[in-house]
UniProtKB/TrEMBL annotation:
Highest taxon above the source species: Bacteria
Gene3D superfamilies assigned: Periplasmic binding protein-like II (3.40.190.10)
Record gene name: tupA
Species for this entry: Tepidimonas taiwanensis
Descriptive protein name: Tungstate-binding protein TupA
Domain PBP: 19-245
Matching InterPro entries: ABC-Tungstate_binding, PBP_domain
């Protein structure tokens, strides 16, 4: 019986060791709904995992929520799109370094008939007209990078958006916000990647694009292991190095939806 017990203990120890190794070869990335809903991660991650053997679990939430997750130590890496908030995160010691990854742009979509007459290339003037006409507008209202950008544009327009009785903050992701806009004939700000992947458009069309202020930049940050010693810093840094290196940047450039590029590589060499 003693011999059997010894083998059982050895087997349990071996299984625990294997589990520990498997756990070490995985990371959690807190990211935005746009990277998930655009299909980018479904394209990128199998390539990274094949190259490194490191599995990636993505938690896709708004940028503000992703930053909160990282502050609590519930993620190893951040991939988000609110540069000012990202730089504060690093300055406050929660992240090691912010690195540019890619960019695309925001677009304003709305009913094809465009009742507020916003069509053009000036996002600030478009929001002023929406406010003047009290046209329905759906905001994510969720502290995401898209929500933060939207609030900046309202401020530039000199408008308090909630003063419009037709303004609706859904507290939801980009896909649900687009669904609400499609169902109610409202205007909504969206990142282009999610828009390209969105199928339930009804009569929504892109009405405002091309304004340089609509550029949408994404950064990647390793969560600081000095704050959270359990952070898988080695594996997380490998993900960052791959994403900002030749293989990851080429994969970002190659990703298409219906033949259209979704993101553009922006890592600095």
């Amino acid at each position: 019986m003693g011999g059997v017990g010894w083998w059982r203990r050895l087997l349990a120890a071996l299984m625990a060791a294997v589990a520990a190794v498997a756990q070490a070869q995985s990371i959690v990335v807190a990211s935005t709904t746009s990277t998930e809903q655009s299909g980018l991660f479904r394209y990128l991650l199998p390539r990274f995992e094949a190259a490194t053997g490191i599995a990636v679990k993505v938690v896709a939430v708004g940028t503000g929520q992703a930053l909160d997750l990282a502050r609590r130590g519930d993620a190893d890496v951040l991939l988000v799109h609110d540069r000012a908030a990202e730089e504060r995160f690093v300055a406050d010691g929660w992240g090691v370094q912010r690195r540019d990854v890619m960019f695309n742009d925001f677009v304003l979509v709305g009913p094809q008939g465009d009742p507020a007459r916003v069509r053009g290339g000036d996002i600030v003037e478009a929001l002023r007209r929406i406010a003047e006409q009290r046209a329905p507008f759906v905001s994510r209202g969720d502290r995401s990078g898209t929500h933060a950008a939207e609030l900046r544009y309202w401020a530039l327009a000199g408008v308090e958006p909630t003063s419009n009785g037709a303004y609706r903050a859904c507290g939801c992701g980009m896909g649900p916000a687009l669904n609400i806009a499609a169902g109610t004939g409202a205007y909504v700000l969206t990142d282009r990647g999610t828009w390209l992947a969105f199928r339930n458009r009804a009569d929504l069309v892109v009405l405002v694009e091309g304004d340089r202020r609509l550029r949408n930049e994404y950064g990647v940050i390793l969560v600081n292991p000095a704050r959270h010693p359990h952070v898988r810093a080695v594996e997380g840094q490998r993900f960052i190095d791959w994403l900002t290196g030749p293989a990851g940047q080429a994969a970002i450039a190659d990703y298409r939806i219906n033949g259209e590029p979704v993101f553009f590589p922006a890592a600095r060499r």
